Give the backbone structure.
Amino acid sequence: MYELAPLTGENIPWDILINYCNKISKEIKVRLIVLINDIKSSLELNKIPEQIDYKLIELDACLDRTWEDLNTGHWKDVPINYRHCYTICSLLKCILLEVNLKDKSTLEDQVIKEIAKQIDKGLLLGAPIDQQPELLTNIASKINNYCSNKISSLTSEKSLEFEIDDKSLSYELLEGCEWLKRYKTPSMETFYREIFKSKVPAVLEDCIGHWKALTLWKDQNYLIKIGGMRTVPIEIGSSYTEDDWSQQLLTLAEFIKGHVAKENDTVGYLAQHQLFEQIPELKNDFTIPDYCNFTDDGKEDSAIDINAWFGPKGTVSPLHYDPRDNLLCQVFGYKQVILYHPDDRKYLYTYDTRLLCNTAQADPVNPDYNKFPEFRKAQGFMCHLKPGEILYIPPEWWHHVVSLSPSFSISFWWN
């Protein structure tokens, strides 16, 4: 039944897709229902749909129209049916692209890359189908394994580590700051009593030494093999508060080779991205710290959000706060982090815009006391986060983060 599309065509809930189509605009709904029925019938008969090139053009038109809907207004206000529509269109396009390979085998690498890119765009911009939420993720894993095997034959098995000159790093304490307290392998009881319950930031040493990621992810070739063909959102520019900031979709390989492994005139940053939901194969290389099991009194357990922070020397997260408990785990590279108590908000000159309401204008590294005179009254706490170390950041504690070298961090947000 699925000989024509073994990567993308298995276990497709056709009837469910049609039900979702009934919730989208009539303009696209009519086209998609016809396409779904035709593709389904063709796969069941193991034949290539008629006029497949025209159908691909139709799907591209639907994707373009939905893209416009997705990019109107604030992302959180986008109706979920637009995102479901993008998921369905992405899925159908990828099935047709794979089916079309039967007549165009010489273009296999090019088409597989296009399929991988569209699936990733579906994951990034679409929304899961409730009855089968792992649909695109499972397809992406199949494609990922296929691509990994292809890349293995093209890349060197020799390790190619990111260049990190740790001997040239400066560890000076900045004016207006004091060092954060450090704990060496704190017990669960110590972490709960002295850190979590008290809601004070602290550096935790020697807690994640068992992670395979600490050694594997330093190797460019390993990351490229696992997910090099996958498309990820990259922040371009010095900081999200600056005018030069933008976003681009790049493959992980393009990002590593163009921004992390060598100097670039523009800073690129894979920031606050749920990379491990997109490429679950990387989850095998780390575990969720047990400290995330603690919850505040009266609160129920909540899902743990795991985000990747990957980039070259010089990436900056401006002074901001997050509403949840955070364990920032350093996989490789070095970061400088400066924190301020929530009560110091009045000295930090916060932005008054909706998009930057959790961000401050004051820069702890290059303070401008003429422009922000009250900032002198803020008490900073500072640390240099090294490979294998964890920084606990309590909710609403302001923090400013600078990468001192190529760096990969994982944050665990919970509570």
